[in-house]
């Protein structure tokens, strides 16, 4: 998918917001929703999305939606630091499939990083699909700091 196109109401994050597929929720407010990634790049890999914007990427994003998403990303990054004590935190956001975007509802990745660990993004995460029960337990431990 290119940088241009129509918003697909059937994309996974639209389905999560509609309650049609489950997610390991970390935080939500009036405008944003944060949850754990199902194919994590590291322990605690989280995503933040707007609940109302239909922007597929940053180039289309309303400034207020962007500010709301980034404010939540900051909250989640602070909570992840408290919960997991990483050495660094990678904040990333991809635009267009050529840049690695696979879900076309704007999202910000928050990836805890540890010295000596991987720093890049692998196609299916570091270990493929995460165990749902492990994600649920991890989300609960991070939520304690939110
Ligand atoms: P992108 O490559 O588009 O920036 O990132 C999409 C991310 O969404 C990937 O890290 C992928 O693992 C994650 N993802 C895709 N589908 C789902 C889903 O249904 N639930 C969750 N929690 N994460 C998803």
TrEMBL record:
One of its GO biological process terms is: nucleotide metabolic process
Q: Which domain of life is it from?
A: Bacteria
* Gene Ontology MF terms: catalytic activity
Residues annotated as the enzyme's active site: 107 (tele-amp-histidine intermediate)
Q: Matching CDD domains, A to Z?
A: HINT_subgroup (cd01277)
The record places the motif (Histidine triad motif) at 105-109
Q: Which InterPro entries match?
A: HINT (IPR039384), Histidine_triad_HIT (IPR001310), HIT-like (IPR011146), HIT-like_sf (IPR036265)
Q: Provide the HIT domain boundaries.
A: 12-121
Name of the protein in question: Histidine triad (HIT) family protein
- Which species does this protein come from? Sphingobium fontiphilum
Q: What is the lineage of its organism?
A: Bacteria, Pseudomonadati, Pseudomonadota, Alphaproteobacteria, Sphingomonadales
